[in-house]
Amino acid sequence: MSVLDKITKPNDIKRLNKSEYPVLAQEIREFLLQHVSRTGGHLASNLGTVELTMALHLVLDFPVDKLIWDVGHQAYTHKLLTGRKEEFEHLREFGGMSGFPKQNESSCDCFDTGHSSTSISAALGFAEAKEIMGTDESVIAVIGDGALSGGLAYEALNNMARLKSSMVVVLNDNEMSISENVGGMSHYLNKIRSAQAYNDFKAGVADTILRIPIAGHDIALSVKRSKDSIKHLLVPGMFFEDMGITYIGPIDGHNIQQMVESLVSAIELQRPVVVHVKTIKGKGYSYAEKHPCYFHGVAPFNLATGKVLEKKEKPGYTDIFARKMLALAKQNQKVVAITAAMAEGTGLKRFREQYPERFFDVGIAEQHAVTFAAGLAAAGMIPVVAVYSSFLQRAYDQILHDVCIQNLHVIFAIDRSGLVGADGATHQGIFDISYLSEIPNMTILSPKNRYEMDAAFDFAYHWTGPVAIRYPRGTACDQWKEFQAPMEYGKSEILYQGQDIAILAVGNMLEEAQKTYDILKQAGQNPTLVNVRFVKPLDRKLLEELGQTHSLICTMEENVWSGGYGQAVGGYLKETGNEKAKFISFAIEDQFVEHGSIPELRKMLGLDGEHMAARILGALRFDLRRDPS
């Protein structure tokens, strides 16, 4: 029996001998490589946190103690150590195990995560609840050094310092150090400062000095200033110390025993503590160690070569955007690009290489990215904010307050709009139409294919106010090349003129709309098919014409219904008193959408061509029964 096979339920790792720890770590890495190479997933981050996770499980008692993972894509080992080994056969598959912590999977997952920089705030909530209820469970948050660039993390640290009881933040630092390791002196001071005896001694000395008549306070203040000056020179982590948070580290994140000792000491201090752990992202797999960004979130790949199995034959929407940005930058030196730690993911890598002085990576700080773009626009530049749909929602107030109120020329390149698949609820881009449409001055485009994507950015470049261009993940559609009507503000594009039934499709949903159209044609119908193109403003003139000439109007979008395009169209038809045409909105009901492939999710949601055609034909048959004439 392998060591990993001995882990069948939470806390089983505590029954192992210390000599088995290195074997278990190796078996976990081999297991992850075998499964992720088949299913795809987040690899480098998980390989880098194997020993760290093992140490946490040796120290904590699950599910009583609380462990909150920032983002959560590095929690694969945690899932293995809590008895979910068999579920890895369907990792990130429809109906299978999520790639992120999920409370509905295990009581050992105490908080659902998916976005960055949230863990300290959530853990602080658990810690304060513990104080109120008088319980004594341990609370630990794990956050990466990159996630500390997010403002929410600093807001949480600022409040964490006021905590009266124990809470530990493990800073997982993988090659992007925020504090320099100064060697022997750092190690020595770390051991002294983390020992309970030293902390008791330090408190006793301070109390004794303060008791000296008249001069005690001044002496204590002088000693503190001298001590802090020396520590600023020699001790890493003074940033945390100055906030009132005890700092321990840096610690070798692949030395299990050292981490266990440090975590135990941190918990026993009964105060807010940051434990700084150094790890190697991708550890144990040479390709992932050399290219951690490539293996951050990877598709199924060949384990022997490290190469992705499915080669892209056609460019994706991200590739189209990347090329267009280079063309616009060449055309005008005022064009600048902004990303929130996603240069590769959003397609700005080549822009960064060719125009470094006009490229800005602000870290995981979407709020700052948007207001920074507003400042650039106010100064006469043309900023393009490249961001995933689900991450842009973190900057809603900045879009409204800093960009749209001033009607500034900021272009939002919204990647991963609509359903994204395997990453699940926290990453589905199914809310952007809703949260952007309600803001005055915002223009929203959703191109139907790669050619219209190019035209959409030309339009945005020449426009004077804020423009959002939303496009999906994956291969760029090259259908309907023959339809390239000029891009005119607020105007939709009629692809096929028919009668009785009008189908208005938003962006990539035109692919399913085409399937619906074909099925209806085979059923003897002659629908009109419209490429919406401009989600906002509505093409009111076209809607009025369709309402007068068609008996059924259908909208199709990969967005929640509430606040979506369909709701806007339905509201407009009702508002204008157009009761002749019946209306169906194909959108996502009031729900979060879990992980699965795009075709599977569309089928589940009733947004595939077959389901939509059946529903339309059913509505027509119902009308015929009511009106035999």
Q: Total number of β-strand segments? A: 17
Arrangement of strands in the largest sheet: 7-6-8-9-11-10-15
Average pLDDT over all residues: 89
**Separation of the first and last Cα atoms:** 76 Å
Characterize the main sheet: 7 strands, mixed
Radius of gyration: 28 Å
Coarse morphology: globular
Number of helices: 24
Tell me what portion of residues adopts beta-strand conformation: 5-15%
Helix fraction, binned, reads 40-55%
Poorly predicted segments: 176-199, 226-234, 624-629
Features:
629 residues, alpha/beta, five-stranded parallel β-sheet, 24 helices, disordered C terminus
Write the layout of secondary structure elements.
Blueprint: H1 21-39, H2 44-47, H3 50-59, E1 66-69, H4 76-81, H5 119-133, E2 139-144, H6 151-160, E3 167-173, H7 184-194, H8 196-210, H9 216-234, H10 238-242, E4 246-252, H11 256-268, E5 272-278, H12 286-290, H13 317-331, E6 335-339, H14 349-354, E7 359-361, H15 366-378, E8 382-388, H16 389-392, H17 396-404, E9 411-415, H18 432-437, E10 443-445, H19 450-462, E11 467-470, E12 493-496, E13 500-505, H20 510-522, E14 528-531, E15 534-536, H21 540-549, E16 550-560, H22 565-575, E17 582-588, H23 598-605, H24 609-626
Parallel strand pairs: 1-2, 2-3, 3-5, 4-5, 6-7, 6-8, 8-9, 9-11, 10-11, 13-14, 13-16, 16-17
Antiparallel strand pairs: 10-15, 12-14
Helix pairs in contact: 3-11, 5-6, 13-19, 15-17, 20-24
